[in-house]
Specification:
Blueprint: H1 3-10, H2 18-27, E1 29-32, H3 38-54, E2 65-67, E3 78-82, H4 84-87, H5 89-97, H6 99-108, E4 112-120, E5 130-133, E6 147-152, E7 163-165, H7 190-194, E8 202-204, E9 211-215, E10 220-222, E11 233-240, E12 259-261, H8 288-292, H9 299-310, H10 321-326
Antiparallel strand pairs: 1-9, 2-3, 3-4, 4-11, 4-12, 5-10, 6-9, 6-11, 7-8, 7-10
The chain binds 2-oxoglutaric acid.
């Protein structure tokens, strides 16, 4: 166990047992079943249904709605709602006020910073796969505390494309997510996967209200949803307050950098292990799906996306500005 992990464990937890915290440090992931109160699930499902309805008038993916091929107004098929808190206060209330921010504090320490969110739908009968990847090289930070907390709104079984993780891979190598032509593809190469023990992957199923937690280095992905039930998974990303991003957030939000538990950091913590840099997405980003599937994004689409991103205010500074002024 690292010194930082020991320090985190020495602080009292709000929700998790010491055993669960140790399991996360050892394996890089955790599932906590049925932890989200029904009231929150109802609120999240209600607002999500509104967005599915809104997507009916959408014909191309943009920086809000990422559409699966085959999406129509009669039969909406969303891959992702990007940055949900940017589009509805209910999602931000969930990210900030619910127990998921407490879960983050149990695992990164009492001072917790928000980074971004996304809602991956994995629609019934064909919802797209997510290829095996590390998150952190999409949004590098000065240390590897960032983690993603996924909330299952519905029961998720093995045929619905549950989130899959490779236990312990957060301690291993960070593999390149560029192809041999130097293009960012946002997933590991087949040659690298062939050298990993992919048979050890665990698929995180659970009843509605369960959460999945995975560290930003852990190799993870999910299969096509072949079942007749969707798999909406709301993913919220937090870090320790002393982890500072040094690239543009692909899912830009005014809430980036907000301290959701505890206090801001005066000092940034730097992990000596290097991190691969992503392309510069400050002008526009669609989603991991369109990158991994190597989909064409036309110029008109890109113009819309750039305009949408430019309209979002930047997040708060990631340092303790008030404390500096007070000195
Ligand atoms: O939705 C999933 O199954 C995986 C999502 C994921 O890894 C991502 O969006 O980065």
């Amino acid at each position: 166990m690292t010194e930082i992990e020991k320090q985190i464990l020495a602080q009292p937890a709000t929700i998790l047992s010491q055993e669960q915290r140790e399991f996360y440090f050892e394996n890089g992931y955790l599932v906590v079943e049925k932890i989200v109160p029904q009231e929150w699930l109802d609120r999240m499902s209600a607002v999500t249904n509104e967005f599915v309805d809104r997507s009916r008038s959408q014909h191309k993916s943009d920086s809000v709605f990422d559409l699966e091929p085959g999406h129509t107004s009669e039969n909406p098929r969303l891959r992702r709602l990007s940055s949900p808190p940017e589009h509805h206060p209910e999602y931000w209330a969930y990210a900030k006020e619910s127990i998921i921010a407490d879960l983050a504090a149990d695992l990164v320490g009492p001072d917790v910073k928000y980074h971004h969110s996304k809602l991956n739908f994995k629609w019934a009968e064909g919802g797209e796969e997510v290829k095996w990847h590390h998150d952190i090289s999409f949004w590098p930070h000065t240390n590897y505390s960032p983690l993603t907390i996924g909330t299952y709104f519905c029961d998720v079984g093995p045929d619905q494309g549950p989130l899959g993780v490779v236990p312990g891979s957060h301690k291993g190598e960070l593999y390149s997510q560029y192809n041999d032509k130097g293009q960012w593809v946002g997933c590991l190469a087949d040659e690298d996967l062939a050298n990993l023990d992919m048979a050890a992957a665990k698929f995180l199923t659970g009843p509605a209200g369960s959460v999945t937690i995975h560290n930003c280095r852990v190799i993870h992905g999910s299969a096509v949803n072949h079942s007749d039930a969707g798999r909406p998974l709301l993913l919220n990303v937090y870090s320790a307050a002393d982890a500072c991003p040094y690239t543009a957030n692909p899912l830009k939000t005014r809430f980036e950098g907000e301290i959701v538990r505890g206090k801001a950091a005066r000092w940034a913590r730097h992990d000596p292990r290097p991190c691969e840099m992503p392309p510069d997405w400050s002008d526009g980003y669609v989603s991991i799906y369109s990158l991994q599937q190597e989909e064409e994004v036309d110029d008109d689409q890109m113009k819309v996306i750039s305009k949408q991103m430019a309209a979002i205010p930047s997040g708060t500074p990631p340092h303790d500005a008030d404390a500096v002024v007070a000195e």
